[in-house]
Amino acid sequence: MSAALAPPRLKAPASAAPAASPAGTPQGYPRRWYTLAVLCLSLLVIVVDSTIVNVALPTFARDLHAGTSGLQWIVDAYTLTFAALLLLAGAIADRYGRHHALTAGLAVFAAGSLAAALTHSTAELIAARAIMGVGGAFIMPATLSIITSVFTDHAERTKAIGLWSAVSGLGVAIGPVAGGWLLAHFSWGSIFLVNLPIVAVALAAGHWLVPASRAPHATRLDLTGALLSVAALTALTYAIIEAPVNGWLSGRTLGLGAIAVGLLGAFFLREARTGHPMLPLTVFRNPRFTGAGITLTILFFALSGAVFLTTQIYQLVLGYSPLAAGLRALPSAAALAVFSPVGASLAKRAGALVPVTIGLSAVAAGLVFFATGSATSGYGHYVIAMIAVSTGIGLAMSAATSASMRELPPAQAGVGSAVNDTTRNMGSVLGVAVFGSITASVTASKVAAGHTMASAFVSGADQAVIAGAIAAIAGAAIAVRTLRNR
Q1: How many CA atoms lie within 13 A of 395 on its CB side?
Q2: Which of 467, 459, 468, 465 is nearest to 441 (CA)?
Q3: Measured between alpha carbons, how far is 454 from 474 in angstroms, rounded to an integer?
Q4: CATH code for 29-210?
Q5: How many other C-beta atoms lie within 10 A of the C-beta of residue 20?
Q6: pLDDT per residue over 98-139, tens digit each?
Q7: Range 283-486 classified under CATH 1.20.1250.20
Q8: How would DSSP label each residue in 275-330?
Q9: What is the pTM of this model?
């Protein structure tokens, strides 16, 4: 992505100066919609990768002789490095250029993908997945911060974020379907090699279509704060990932949690005292920014937990193959993709509060309906529930994201995007951990009482999704207090 397109401030080439709208409103970078396409493609590849691997876990167990712990870390190594580096990646993007961060992230992600495809052991694959997570941590915040920079008109930016959100929903659905098809026709390495041509297209197109963008008056990087943030997020994410195995109230989990809280406290203290903070704490004094972040955490808590359980119900209870299960998830993913732009459009006309509260209410209703299922419930029951959940996620996600980014000055777009992405990631990790823990606990007790595995698992899932419904209702109440129109 060429820095020649602009000096440090966002600027289009002189031969293509920004035009003005009929009303005199600056239109920003003239090729901004092509830029959005490149950014969405970059986002798509990392979202697809986060779900495509799950389909291949049985294959890894067979071909790499991976045990349960190894399979877990093939998935979690990516999540851990991705979560740990998000804030640092956002700060680096603001300081040295968001377009450079995107380019570097794509290159690292491609290198990790190639390494993963060529591995011969579980340990090698885990290491390659960690490298991919490093690349993803630079890609995701860069895409959102560049959107904020090139779309200077609020209405257009809201629409662009809606489309960006829609692509993330499509990626969740494409992953299992693409993974199932690739595994049916090629070796398991193909699920990683497929990333390479997509990254190549994104890099080539981005060189011409993504302009330079960085903080206008960037300060030097806060290395102490950076190290504390990486350590704190690593400890927190690791504690959540391991909690279902170790027990939520075990000494190990509580100890890791205490370490994470201590490191987060040290990080916030450092940021409050330094003259060049990586994450200015003043952003959290803005109730709209904080409220939008809480909303996103709850949305991804509910979405990830529900998708985690639904995928298993489709395969373990209803008996579908991985590919068939992926295909049956398409209607709910389509609902998320369709309603993300609708939520953005509604926010533009009525403010963020309306689509966020409607969306969270739909999520709660869908999860409550989900909880009425039994071992005899068919595909129709679960697809209706997930369409309701996904519709709500789509309505609320783009509106909350747009509200969050609107509150930040351009100089903080990168780190603000990283905060946005960190809340999403933490919600996702918590959703899988909490929903999984509740389901496993109830399933074990039901099996011990003589229930069939299918009946026991569905009972556990029913109780788990109620936790998501309660969180969604709480999120709606928080949104009413924090996202009112000014």
Answers
A1: 21
A2: 459
A3: 31
A4: 1.20.1250.20
A5: 10
A6: 889 999 999 999 999 999 999 999 999 999 999 999 999 999
A7: yes
A8: SS-SS-GGGGGSHHHHHHHHHHHHHHHHHHHHHHHHHHIIIIIS---HHHHHHHTH
A9: 0.80
